[in-house]
Design the sequence.
């Protein structure tokens, strides 16, 4: 047997190996891009977090200064003394057994409201424009009595003594206090411990508003980097796709031209063999074979040249009768007797502005494809709707996968790629049909389901 396609196989193998390498490179590149974006985002996040913490520290320092200013007046001392004197008084009475424990704890907070009110007024009065709107609170933590060297804890816990407002969520410890007082006759030593807190809920909002510019810039920068990567990768993938399609085209064209050339070579050699007498039948069969292969070569050549030159529309009005279309289909049927081709037409005659030859090319190319891709039954329909001439060709062939449907009109695009060739072709048929349809201001669309069939619809304004 003669090996008709040695070159094609090497090309295909080279093509698929090269394509796999490219694929691996692209996958690696995508991985590297994702990694860089994550690394950049992490670094940015780290810097943003640090800036946040810095602002937080700065605001807290200012608040502490604000509190120090508040606590450094006689008026404040007075408010503060009120509760400590008051607490000491009841602590002594309790220590001496003059009041019960429950009344002692009750008496500790008896002045809470009036002190809180005083504190509120005081803070308002002391407020300065640059001050933060803070809440301030004092808690009593413990009262211990030392009598004759013996320690006795009268109170241990956390009791609110005063606060300028209803307390906000985030309480921060501002300072801890410890007072020691002796009884007049040195009989008792009282140790009072208290904690002061401030809270400032708007901290987060203030920091975020301070950082708004930085945050926006970071997000915009990240978005720009992602967009740049996306565009570059998209470009690369489309370059790869074009390269693959070109490799496929070279493989296909080599394959397509090699078959008729090899067949003609054999036929010519047969005719050149003068030693053996040829029967007239053998002679005419060989000539017919050469003619057929020659015609095939011409058809291929026509396809390539047609696709490389944009068709020119001839918008002269023509009358197309349904009879005429039927004849075109019947001519086609002569070569495909096993295929059922139905033809329906809305009208007997249509007037459209189109070259008759172009209409014929579109129809025959679509029928040719339907047969090539496995149809046994084809339905062709003509109609006029909303000022458009609509030609549809529906077949029950192998159909086109959804993900391929948008690409089949591209130049050189074939669904069977690489060295999987169940059907011959250059991927130029639908591209040329689309070009033709577009020169008449029309559109072509496909609806298809794999293993069920395809429907091609051509719409041309009349
Ligand atoms: P070619 O037939 O030379 O490959 P075309 O441009 O005519 O090129 O078609 C592009 C691709 O669309 C084909 O490779 C084929 O997979 C798919 N295709 C076209 N028509 C049909 C059809 N009627 N049924 C199934 N697939 C089709």
Sequence:
């Amino acid at each position: 047997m003669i090996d008709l396609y040695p070159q094609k196989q090497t090309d295909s193998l080279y093509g698929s190996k090269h394509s796999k390498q490219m694929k691996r490179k692209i996958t690696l590149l995508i991985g590297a891009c994702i990694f860089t974006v994550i690394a950049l985002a992490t670094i940015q996040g780290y810097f943003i977090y640090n800036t946040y913490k810095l602002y937080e520290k700065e605001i807290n320092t200012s608040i502490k200064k604000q509190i120090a200013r508040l606590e450094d007046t006689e008026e404040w001392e007075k408010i503060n003394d009120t509760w400590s004197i008051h607490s000491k008084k009841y602590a002594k009475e309790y220590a001496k057994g003059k009041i019960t424990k429950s009344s002692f704890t009750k008496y500790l907070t008896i002045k809470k409201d009036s002190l809180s009110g005083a504190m509120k007024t005081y803070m308002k009065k002391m407020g300065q424009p640059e001050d933060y709107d803070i809440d301030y609170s004092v808690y009593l933590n413990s009262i211990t009595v030392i009598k004759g060297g013996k320690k006795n804890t009268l109170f241990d816990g956390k009791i609110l003594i005063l606060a300028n407002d209803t307390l906000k969520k985030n309480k921060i410890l501002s300072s801890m206090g410890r007072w020691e007082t002796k009884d007049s006759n040195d009989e008792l030593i009282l140790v009072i411990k208290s904690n002061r807190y401030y809270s400032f809920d708007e901290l987060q909002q203030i920091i975020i508003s301070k950082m708004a510019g930085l945050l926006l810039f970071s997000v915009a920068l990240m978005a720009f980097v992602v967009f740049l990567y996306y565009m570059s990768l998209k470009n690369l993938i489309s370059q790869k796709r074009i390269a693959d399609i070109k490799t496929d085209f070279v493989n296909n064209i080599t394959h397509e031209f090699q078959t008729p050339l090899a067949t003609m070579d054999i036929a010519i050699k047969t005719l050149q063999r003068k030693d053996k007498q040829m029967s007239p039948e053998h002679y005419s069969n060989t000539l017919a074979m050469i003619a057929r292969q020659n015609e095939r070569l011409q058809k291929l050549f026509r396809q390539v040249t047609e696709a490389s030159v944009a068709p020119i529309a001839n918008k002269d009005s023509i009358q197309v009768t349904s009879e005429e279309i039927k004849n075109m289909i019947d001519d086609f049927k002569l070569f495909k007797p096993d295929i059922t081709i139905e033809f329906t037409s809305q009208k007997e005659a249509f007037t459209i502005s189109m070259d008759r030859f172009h209409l014929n090319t579109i129809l025959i190319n679509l029928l040719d494809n339907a047969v090539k891709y496995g149809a046994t039954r084809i339905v062709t329909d003509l109609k006029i709707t909303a000022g458009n001439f609509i030609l549809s060709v529906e077949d029950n062939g192998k159909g086109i996968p959804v993900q391929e449907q948008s690409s089949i009109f591209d130049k050189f695009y074939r669904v069977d790629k690489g060295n999987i060739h169940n059907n011959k072709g250059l991927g130029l048929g639908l591209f040329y049909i689309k070009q033709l349809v577009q020169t008449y201001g029309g559109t072509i669309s496909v609806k298809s389901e794999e293993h069920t069939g395809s429907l091609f619809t051509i719409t041309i304004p009349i």
Observations:
- The pocket of adenosine-5'-diphosphate is lined by residues 369-370, 372-373, 395, 397-400, 408, 413-416, 425-431, 454 (CB under 6 Å).
- The chain is about 55% helix and 20% strand.
- The first helix runs from residue 6 to 70.
- The two ends are 54 Å apart (CA to CA).
